[in-house]
Amino acid sequence: MAQKAVGSSPTTRPVEAPLNKVEAAGLLTVDLEKLLPLPPLKAFDIAAFLEEGLLLREKPFRQALQGHDWQAYEGSAVAIYTSTDAIIPPWAYLLVGKHLAGHAVYYAVCRPEELPERYRLDHLEKLDWTAYTDKRLLLRGCASVSPAVLTAFFRRALPYARLIFYGEACSSVPIYKKTTL
Q1: Are residues 167 and 144 in the same domain?
Q2: Is residue 1 part of a domain?
Q3: Paired strand residues for 28
Q4: Which backbone phi and psi does 84 adopt, to 5 degrees?
Q5: What is the pLDDT of residues 160-170, one digit of tens each?
Q6: Residue 29: strand pairing partners
Q7: Number of domains making up the chain
Q8: Is the same domain home to 32 and 48?
Q9: Domain check: are 45 and 96 in the same one?
Q10: What pLDDT score does 79 carry?
């Protein structure tokens, strides 16, 4: 049998919510993966439309593009590239872009692995940077965005933000502090 301790009485303490140190510090966490989400990513290889994978003839190329299923790119970001060493005239990329324009949300001439960075860099330009005026920013560090995207965000936010940190709330590195004269 359990015995009661002499002279002690059970006391109940109100349960307090854990302290959110990020909120308490007045930091605004910027998660670039959430701020700049990626649509489905697809690739369009011009090499599939070349004779023997190397020669582009205008008339057959135009006909092949006309018969291609462009619906497959609906709502996607598309990398237009060539997987062979063929020399592709610039107008060929423009023709592909013309067909993608009605279906893809974004397209660029780049290797498929470069598309996420290119997409995010272009979409940084559309952000309302005044929303960061005099804010204390914490650029989330465990994101899968490239250093180029992080740097571009930093460069654009710099004139507005009061402080910029990089990392996580538990382990952040101070990067910038606005000095007042």
Answers
A1: yes
A2: no
A3: 137
A4: -115, 180
A5: 999 999 998 88
A6: 138
A7: 2
A8: no
A9: yes
A10: 98
pLDDT per residue as tens digits for the range 114-151: 999 999 999 999 999 999 999 999 999 877 899 999 99
Q: Where are the beta strands (DSSP E) in the chain?
A: 27-30, 41-45, 77-81, 106-109, 136-140, 163-168, 171-177
| End-to-end C-alpha distance for the chain, whole angstroms | 72
Closest CA to 149 of 38, 40, 22, 42: 38
| Residue 147 domain-assigned (yes or no) | yes
> Which of 30-34, 38-42, 123-127, 138-142 has the least mean pLDDT?
138-142
* 45 and 99 belong to one structural domain: yes
Amino acid at 68: H
Residue 60 confidence (pLDDT): 95
Domain that holds residue 55: 41-104
- State whether 32 and 53 are in the same domain: no
Question: Do 92 and 142 belong to one domain?
Answer: no
**Residue among 113, 155, 115, 110 nearest 132 (CA):** 155
Give the C-alpha separation, 101 to 97, whole Å. Answer: 6
